[in-house]
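User: Round two. Same drill as before: sequence, then structure, for each protein.

Assistant: Same drill it is. First protein:
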Amino acid sequence: MDERNQDLPFSESVEMYLLRIALLSRQEQPVPIALLADELGISPVSTNQMCRKLEEKELVQYQPYKGVILTSAGDAVARHVLERRRLWELFMIEALDMPAEQAEDFACRFEHVTPDELSERLAIFLSTVARDKNMAAAASRGRQEHLLTELQAGQSAEVVSIDVPQAWRSFLMAEGVLPGAYLKVLAVSSQGTYLLDVADHQLAVVSEIAAIIQVTVLA
C-alpha cells in the first residue's frame, strides 16, 4: 500500500499501469506489452513482470503474445484515478487560472495522492462554481437550464451540474461529463437511453441518470 496515503488501496506504480492500459485500450483489444512499456518509459521485461503481478491481483487479463486487458476491477481503479486527474485539472484551470498544459502536468502528480474525501469536496466545489458561472452566462445570453432528458437527437448542450449519486458521478466524470463540458445527443433509444458524443468519444447514459443532469442547450 502507498505509505503516503492510507486512503489509497494501490501504489502509484499500480495505478499508473492501470491508467495507461485504460488510455491505450481500443475496442477492448489487448494492449501490447511493448507499447505499454514504451508509453511508460520502462523496459519490456519489467513491464511484463508488473503485468504478471497485476494479473495475480485480478486487475488485468494477460494474453500471451497479445498483451493485457483490464478486468472490471482494474478498469474501476483506472477510472477512479482519471476522475481525480480531471478534477485537479479543472480546479487548476478554473479556480487558479493555470494554463491547461501546466494544469495537466500537476494533476498527473496529484492524482495518485488524493483521498476520496478530498475528491468529493473538489467535485462539490467545482460543481457549485460551474453551476453559478453557467447560470450567470446563460442568463446573460437568455439561455435557460434544462434536464438532459429534455434534449432531442442532434441537439448540443453544455453541462451545468451533475447532481447524481457518487457512484455515477465518478463514472461520468471519468468519461468527461463534467460541469462546463460540451456534449451532443446522438440518439435516444426507445428505452430512454441517451447516446452522447462527449470528450471525443461516445457514451450511453440511462434515462434515470440523464433526468438529473442539468444542461444549457446550445443548438
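Second protein:
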Amino acid sequence: MNPVLFAVLLVSAIGLIAGLGLSIASAVMAVPVDEKTEKIRACLPGANCGACGFSGCDGYAQALSDGTTADTGLCGPGGQDAAQAIAEITGLAVSESMPMTAVVHCRGNHQTAVDKLDYFGIESCSMAIQVFGGPKACANGCLGFGDCVRECPFDAITVCDGVARVNPALCHACKKCIAVCPKHLISLVPKDAGIPVVLCMNKEKGAQTRKQCKSGCIGCMKCAKNCEVGAISVINFCAEVDAEKCVACGKCAEGCPVHCIHIMGGKAVIE
C-alpha cells in the first residue's frame, strides 16, 4: 500500500475513534442542566460581582432555583427589573430593593489636602499605601491613583483633582470598588435625592484634621445639633448619618462649617 495513503487512513481512523470516544464520554459524563436555573441566570446582568452574597450570577441563580434563598432582590446591578423577572420565573415574591450607589467618603483634593511626602512609585493605591500609608497626611484620605476606576465594570468612577468620585447615574452597586479600596473609603448609600452623606472618614480631633485637610470633618457637632430626628451622630470626631432615620431635611448640610456633608441628588460629587 502507498505509504502516504496508509498514513492518511491511519490518521483518519484515529480521529474517528477519538471522536466516538469523546461523544460517548460527553453523553455519559454530561451534567444535567437545570432549565429553571438557566432561565434565572438569563435574567441577571452577568457582572459576577458577588454583591448578592453568592459566587457570582451562576451561584445566585442556583440558590434561587434550589431554594437556598427566596430573596429575589439581591442583585444590585440588575435592580428591580431583575427582581421582577426572577419572581415571574420562580413564583417568589418580588423583593423591594432600595436603589443604592457607591460613594467615596473623601473630599481631600489637591487644593484642600496636605501631602506628607512625594510619591513616585507605581500609580496604584494598593502600592502607594505601602509607603508610610500613602502621600496624603490624612490617614483616611483618598489616594486618587484609580484602583477603583480600573475595577468598576460600569465606568461609574473617575478621579477628579486627586479624589475618586462616583456617578450615581452609572453606578450599579456591585461593590467591586468597595472591595478594592485599600483605605476602605467607599460604601453604599441610598440613591434617593435628599439623603445626606458625610464625605470624610478622618478620625482625628478637629485641630489635627484642619492641619491635614481643609475639607475634613472636625467633629464640631453642629450637624448633630441641627438634626431634629437624631439621624446624625459624631463618633471618633467624625459625623455619621443613619439613612433609616433621616428625613432629608438638609439642615445638617446647611450648618456644616467645612461643607463635608453632601446631599445626594443623582450627580457625581466633584465639589
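The longest strand covers residues 100-104.

User: Perfect.
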